[in-house]
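Preliminary data (for renewal application), flavin-adenine dinucleotide complex.
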Amino acid sequence: MPAQQEKDSNISRRQFLSRAGVAGTAAVVGSLASGSASAAEEAPIKSAINWDQEADVVVIGAGATGMPAAIVAREAGARVILVEANFDIGGHAITSSGNVPLGGGTSIQKKAGIIDSPDLVFQDLTDWSVVEPNGFPDYRYNDREIIRAFADNSVQSFEWLVAHGVIFVDKAPDTAGGTSVGNSVPREMHAAAMDWPMVQTGQPVAPAVRATTSTGNGLMRPLEVAAKKAGVQILLEHRMTSIHREAPGSGRVLGIAVENKGAKLNIRATKAVIIGTGGSTGNVNFRRMFDPRLTEEYCAVAGMPWSDQDASGEIAAMGIGASLWGLYNEVGEFGTTITKSDLIGCQYNYRVLTWMPGSPVFKLARASGLKVLDWQNVIMVNMLGNRFYDETGAQFSANDAGQVDPYTPGSYLNAEKIKYKPSNFINAALAGIGDGHNGGGPIWAIFDADAVTRARWKPEPPNVDFDAGFFFTADTIPDLAAKIVMKYQRVPMPPENLEKTISRYNSFVDAGKDEDFGKPAPKYKIAKAPFYAAWATPTIHDCRAGLRINAKCQVQDMNANVIPGLYCGGESAGGFSLHGLARAICQGLIAGRNAVAEEAM
Ligand SMILES: Cc1cc2nc3c(=O)[nH]c(=O)nc-3n(C[C@H](O)[C@H](O)[C@H](O)COP(=O)(O)OP(=O)(O)OC[C@H]3O[C@@H](n4cnc5c(N)ncnc54)[C@H](O)[C@@H]3O)c2cc1C
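Predicted structure:
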């Protein structure tokens, strides 16, 4: 910052501080393009803000990043306000399966005789030579600075969780539930459900499995207790709408604006604001910057309808000049960014998240879905009633311990030995119908009465969602096609197409061979009424690209300058391809510790 401007802004800050205790100079949220130095110089420091509340550290989002950040900052002596848009804490983390890949030599790894180290974590998560069978590399585009910080802080993040009441399943770390967590050794540990009511069901799990069921409820509820005990002020149903900075492209972050039940409030942060808002995959326009195919019909982000990933953190930070980072990781064809669903007939169809009628959000979820255990029981068709791929086809894969074998870190042989296998189910489902529109449109699982018997499905509410148009039934195939009317089905399904598709598929069953898509030995004809069409459109999950941060989790602008007083971690932060909880928890702790160390305004 030029000397004169620095001086001016200091004067402003003093004036600001002198106003009635917490009233001050204002920052204004600028346009998304306002990050340049010239925009900053031109932007005047505008009006006064009336601060309604004040803390040293303000954390946005009570999920896997925000909760640890808030606790660690509070325990270090800061006054902490944690704002959460939802009616409850937890974010996607509480809906998660609680598999936590924190390695590097944790006490559980040591107990199991697994030899790991921060250097091994770093080496694993930056190994260019690890590729998936479709040729996509899990780790090649990771930011080395960010991974080093994660590797060096993983062990203490794990021990911190244990010290703050999280009980892990008492068994050796394994590979269950991990994606892109490193090839060398098992690192997945599992937060035990214990007696916490599950947000999925409203009930605790059965006593016999309380200590062995892995769930995010067992991760987030103990942290909620720890946060309250430490004195973190948690403001539920407070949605951050913008971040205040001295000027749109320069100066320090001052606080945030929030909405609470229609009221607008400003919360001042004397030291720092931490963004833990969980990513951007629920925001159609934002996610389409990464992948234009991801149009509105992908209306089931995993974790919804408990909490959204609406990009509000990214957009607010970009509004004051922040940059995005590591964008390849969002479109690389590995991991669970876009998933094939095996839960059909309901909107919120992520494979390991079943909403049951006792859940506090069941009214929003509306149906639990039918679980597909055998893809021979259905065919999958697009909006036009045409099959598009082998129904048994898989989503993208991801690397985890032992998958490259033998493995020599950094060796060209790792990639050379991979047998190419494209895993293109998702790409075929998203291909569209050739009419110039983006997006693959709804995907429907079609089956008959015999499939219902074989799979022991109950195709009725609360398992399926007739009312909102995610499930249909009819006595004839043409009637079924004609009935498929819902907001994402933007063209009618021609009945003759669906009839033709089914009769061709039935002929493949007779022949024992799928001549169109190579489904292994098609087994069952679709012949017995009634017939069904169940929503089976892919679900969006991870967000692996977001705001540019450095090793301290400080947010940076387009010129790589730190935005003073602004931190971010978890799915809203970029540069790190690793699924989920571990990076969020670890970055939350890094951000929280560094935020407290900031000089107070
Ligand atoms: C079904 C499911 C299963 C999963 N299983 C695993 C697993 O087993 N292992 C694993 O490692 N990962 C798993 N994940 C991923 C993991 O849960 C997430 O990666 C992790 O929770 C991300 O942490 P976060 O802090 O970035 O976001 P979240 O945990 O989602 O927290 C973000 C919070 O911010 C709030 N928020 C958003 N915008 C605002 C705003 N403007 N103002 C105020 N609050 C706001 C949200 O409501 C939310 O509470 C799973 C995810 C899902 C959905």
